[in-house]
């Protein structure tokens, strides 16, 4: 199965479906990412703070898959902001991953208390120019924090942000659309904390002979989001990858859109420092 790609505002492409490794135990990461690569995933989303970049790197090296067939993202943690410090942090991530470049490097959180994400962001294009990352972007910059980033004139290729049917980033979306910044939806399944099977999603899933998780992933794809659900379980990895043989109708997409209720399931960027 070839996963569709999206073209970013810097002209580069990204596989629209990937595999996320948040909360994947460093000891288990090599096995789990190996499973994901065998299932067919070619896009892996990690972060320095997940502590599992080494396991991701080992799985990639062992797989024998050509580097240019893989898309790897990592993220700068909150205590490594600043121009010089972020460059050192990126170097450490590359070392752990065993790669000479990532495909996408993100500022993980705006950390408003530290008040230096703009300085950090202004250093990011040089990492791209030096070939340490192909694309650059931000994460968790919502309508409160994205304007300062946009004011620099350096436009992120993506904003990786909490996004699932009951929390669709309604206030941030107009800015993202205006600047052609792709939504990377984290917590795409609501982190398993919302009983989506018991909503209209359950009915739509039954109508297509698919699971609630596959139905939500399909909704993300049709909404144009980049999405990388996480599972330690190989059957679920395969299930989450098996989403290209059905299509939601316009009315079904609209019904899922209607689940928006402002209910985030994880950290508010104003409070993560
Ligand atoms: P998710 O929405 O992908 O939920 C994962 C959980 O959903 C699993 O632990 C499991 O309990 C359940 N699940 C997965 N597949 C299922 C299936 N087929 N059927 C039933 N249940 C299933 O949440 P996530 O892991 O938080 O988000 C995905 C990825 O996004 C992460 O792994 C990470 O790469 C990224 N992320 C980024 C940030 C950020 O701040 N940038 C924050 C959280 C996550």
UniProtKB/TrEMBL annotation:
It holds the Pfam family Aldo_ket_red. Substrate binds at residue 108. Keywords: NADP, Oxidoreductase. GO terms for molecular function: oxidoreductase activity, acting on the CH-OH group of donors, NAD or NADP as acceptor. Residues 23-259 form the NADP-dependent oxidoreductase domain. The record marks 75 as: Lowers pKa of active site Tyr. It is an enzyme of class 1 (oxidoreductase). The active site is at residue 50. The keyword Methyltransferase does not apply. Its EC number is 1.1.1.346. Belongs to the aldo/keto reductase family. This is 2,5-diketo-D-gluconate reductase A. It comes from Brevibacterium aurantiacum.
